[in-house]
Structure prediction request, 44 residues.
Amino acid sequence: MGIEHQITIPLHETLKPGMLNALLVEVAAYLKMDKKTLVEKIFR
Prediction:
């Protein structure tokens, strides 16, 4: 961390589950945590 990380999120009304999963996996990897932990932190 410490380095700016940018991801592209498609501008749609809804995201398909596969796209949402891919975004969460990418962010979790950048933050060096597993996806489950990231989801728990986001959706508490």
